[in-house]
Write a structure and sequence with these properties.
Distance between the termini: 47 Å
Bound molecules: adenosine monophosphate, zinc ion
Strand content: 5-15%
CATH class of the largest domain: Alpha Beta
Shape: elongated
Number of domains: 3
Strand order of the largest sheet: 4-3-9-10
Length: 457
């Protein structure tokens, strides 16, 4: 069995991954708040944890991994959008949840096992809040319920902050109903024109953090194996989730491994809606194949920051062209995931190393002697690509030439081979004539180290 190592934010170390129960490996990743389009930075955790989900299924078996990625469908920003547009909460959240699913599908993200919606779990949230109050970890005041951070000794352990940092970092609201400025909201009152639910503390709605604690407990259990999200969620969101869940569960830890992806930046500034420097997935997919976006996201190690540039996209397109070019020349069926790719992924999801392994396999396929060895190497390349959610298209479709008949494609392949031969024998007149013919047929040829690829110009 592949031995998996993952970096854990809580201990600050890379540790061997040992699930609580290998028959039911559990992972929860904080999903989107659905009030607008997802940007490519939001796609990073979806893609990273999709690669991990695929890897876990290969290691533990298809039906032994439960992955929950929630939809936050009640939150302040959604209410602001309701007020600004006049649309209902359901209209907004359904629209953007659908768009999110379509956008993530376009970058090759498979559906998680469960996609819980916060508004379907209000009862569970209320029950958890009641438990926290009973245990002396929360208190009701003026229609609010607050978590008392002083009641939890380990508060700050994940983000490694002391109380002063946390207060500054969270830009905490100093409110008269709070016993301590760092206390955070579990429940808050809803105004008459805002969505709300009846509760023991009056009509109101949950805070964001309790949503994830309640959904994690309901679908995955009190202690789960992996909890993930972007690095910005470490504090306050995940710190607060830990406080709520640990205190509601008699001190049991919430997750064995905490994983966080680094940020995508543009021009050295983090990509974020509030800064306005975002590239939306649904716009990018109009200009680039989804696999190019996915490849670009995987060029960096998930924990490192990644700068999003046009040059990165162009390089990613060229890299995929080279790999697909090999698969066009050597038709192969996908085989077992090669050891080189699996070992890279099992080492804390080292996707840059896994991509380099794909190029080594492409080189092997080109150099292999005899059809059997060539097809075997190409099959390994295909399987390695698919482990990353890449190389999922047919090579002809990738190059946009599947509309041509097989005879036409074979003719063009032959013209390109003849041209290479003419160049080799320094018959430049013939090489030029062949190039002219390719141009006349609207064929664009790209020569690369693995051989030439072509597409319709
Ligand atoms: P949000 O909808 O803002 O809660 O974000 C959804 C997910 O995307 C969270 O896991 C965030 O941590 C993550 N995220 C947001 N912006 C970026 C970014 N620029 N780079 C990487 N991840 C991000
Ligand atoms: Zn969450």
């Amino acid at each position: 069995m592949t031995r998996l190592h993952l970096h854990d934010t809580l201990t600050g170390r890379k540790r061997e991954f040992i699930p609580g129960d290998p028959e039911r490996v559990t992972m929860y990743v904080c999903g989107p708040t659905v009030y607008s389009y997802a940007h490519i930075g939001n796609a990073r955790p979806a893609v990273v944890f999709d690669v991990l989900f695929r890897l876990l299924k290969r290691i533990y078996g298809e039906n032994h991994v439960v992955y929950a990625r929630n939809i936050t469908d009640v939150e302040d920003k959604i209410i602001e959008t309701m007020k600004a547009t006049g649309a209902s909460m359901k209209e907004i959240t359904q629209k953007y949840a659908d768009i999110y699913r379509a956008d993530m599908g376009a970058v090759g993200v498979s559906l998680p096992t469960i996609e819980p919606h916060a508004t379907d779990h209000i009862d569970e949230m209320i029950a958890m809040i009641e438990k926290l109050i009973e245990g002396g970890h929360a208190y009701a005041a003026e229609g609010h319920v607050l978590f008392a951070v002083k009641s939890f000794n380990d508060y700050g352990a994940l983000s490694k902050r002391d109380m002063d940092d946390m207060i500054a970092g969270a830009r905490v609201e100093i409110a008269p109903y709070k016993k301590d400025p760092a206390d955070f909201v579990l429940w808050k009152p809803a105004k008459d024109d805002e969505p709300g639910w009846d509760s023991p503390w009056g009509r109101g709605r949950p805070g964001w953090h309790i949503e994830c604690s309640a959904m994690t407990e309901k679908h995955l259990g009190e202690t789960i194996d992996i909890h993930g999200g972007g690095i910005d969620l470490t504090f306050p969101h995940h710190e607060n989730e830990i406080a709520q869940s640990v205190c509601a569960h008699g001190g049991k830890i919430m997750a064995r491994y905490w994983m966080h992806n680094g940020f995508l930046s543009m021009d050295a500034e983090k990509m974020s809606k509030s800064l306005g420097n975002v590239k939306l997935v649904h716009e990018l997919v109009e200009h680039w194949p989804g696999e190019v976006l996915r490849y670009a996201l995987l060029t960096g190690h998930y924990r490192a920051p990644l700068d999003w540039t046009d040059a990165l996209l162009e390089r990613s397109q060229k890299s995929l062209d080279r790999l697909y070019g090999v698969l066009r020349r050597i038709r192969a069926e996908s085989g077992d995931v090669p050891e080189s790719v699996e070992a890279a992924l099992a080492d804390d999801l080292n996707t840059p190393k896994a991509l380099a392994a794909l190029f080594a396999l492409a080189g092997e396929a080109n150099r292999a002697e005899g059809d059997e060895a060539r097809v075997k190497a190409a099959g390994a390349l295909l399987a390695g690509g698919q482990a990353l959610g890449l190389l999922e298209e047919s090579p002809d479709a990738w190059f946009g030439i599947d509309s041509l008949s097989e005879t036409e494609r074979a003719e063009i392949d032959q013209l390109i081979l003849d041209r290479a031969e003419a160049r080799k024998t320094k018959d430049f007149a013939r090489a030029d004539a062949l190039r002219d013919e390719l141009v006349a047929r609207n064929i664009k040829v790209e020569d690369g180290p693995e051989g030439s690829t072509w597409r319709l110009g």
